[in-house]
Design goal:
Helix 1 (4-17) crosses helix 2 (49-58) and helix 3 (75-97) crosses helix 4 (139-152). The radius of gyration is 19 Å and the shape is elongated. The protein has a three-stranded antiparallel sheet. A two-stranded antiparallel ribbon has the order 4-5. The chain has helices spanning 4-17, 49-58, 75-97, 139-152; strands at 24-25, 29-31, 38-40, 110-111, 118-119. The protein is mainly alpha-helical. The protein folds into two domains: 4-73; 76-156, no CATH class. The termini are far apart. The protein contains four helices and five strands. Helices cover 39% and strands 8% of the residues.
């Protein structure tokens, strides 16, 4: 296992030389070039971002990096993942703001507003109340996101 300072040094090198390390989503969240997930949140320009990013690797948040022996994901794939993360947040807001995202059949199955098909994803608490933003981790948001992405052709990009 690499010591923390060695990991921070490799992170600094990646940030300096490789555009795959420089993808920021939702203003100040760093996208990991290995796993394609948000690896560091709420980055600030006045902090040592290398140590905050290194924590993603040190605490086991990335299962794909293999001590920097693995190759980072291709830049096109990372850009697509970044778009999908932003899209996921929008879906949470749409559920809160638009009634068409809050229709369920008599058995409690969600009805997609795009394809008008039922989905067995459980309804989260507050999902039917206007203005309640459903957390992006909820399976309900993932189902909405997947349906919208499929219906809009986003997944074919």
């Amino acid at each position: 296992m690499l010591p923390a300072k060695a990991i921070e040094k490799r992170v600094a090198e990646g940030l300096e030389k490789d555009e795959r390390w420089k993808i920021i989503v939702r203003k100040n969240n760093w996208l990991c070039p290995y796993c394609g997930k948000i690896g560091a949140r709420e980055l600030q320009m006045d902090e040592a971002i290398e140590s905050k990013i290194a924590e993603h690797f040190l605490r086991g948040g990335c299962e794909s990096w293999s001590y920097f022996e693995a190759e980072p994901l291709p830049i096109d794939r990372l850009r697509l993942l970044a778009k999908l993360i932003v899209f996921k947040v929008r879906v949470g807001r749409w559920i809160a703001e638009e009634k068409r995202f809050r229709f369920f059949d008599a058995d409690g199955r969600w009805i997609c507003p795009y394809c008008v098909k039922e989905n067995d994803v459980p309804k989260p608490p507050g999902a039917l109340e206007t203005g309640v933003v459903v957390p992006e981790e909820e399976p309900f948001v993932a189902a909405n996101r997947s349906e919208k992405a499929r219906a809009s052709g986003f997944m074919s990009q």
